Amino acid sequence: MRLTPPVRSFLSSHDLSGKIVAPFVTYIVSGLGRSRRDIEELCPKSTIEAGLAVLGEDARQARPDESRPRFRLNFL
């Protein structure tokens, strides 16, 4: 999976240097795919968190999976 044009455009036109970027997607086949690498290329001076991918058909029922590391953000 690649970044959608609107997301790519947003990341290209905003300076996110020093910011935390936390990718998340809903998907049907590919999960995060190449999204993280694309974000790293577009935001080289940002901290890119591990991503969260939720199967599209399961999005409404999605709940935390206690067997996986928590997806957490540290805001100041």
Description:
There is one protein chain. The longest helix has 9 residues, at 5-13. The mean pLDDT is 80. This protein has 76 residues and is of the alpha/beta class. The chain has helices spanning 5-13, 35-42; strands spanning 20-21, 24-27, 47-48, 52-55.
User: How many β strands by DSSP?
Assistant: 4
Structural class: alpha/beta
What's the number of helices? 2
Topology as a string of helices (H) and strands (E) = HEEHEE
Give the uncertain stretches in residue-range form. none
Main-sheet strand order equals 1-3
Fraction in helix: 10-25%
The value of Rg in angstroms is 13 Å
Biggest sheet layout: 2 strands, parallel
Percent of sequence in beta strands:
15-25%
Overall morphology: elongated
Mean pLDDT: 80
Spatial separation of the terminal alpha carbons = 31 Å
Summarize the structure.
The chain has 76 residues and is α/β, with parallel strands linked by helices.
Key phrases:
76 residues; alpha/beta; two-stranded parallel ribbon; 22% helix
Please specify the SSE layout and strand pairing.
Elements: H1 5-13, E1 20-21, E2 24-27, H2 35-42, E3 47-48, E4 52-55
Parallel strand pairs: 1-3, 2-4
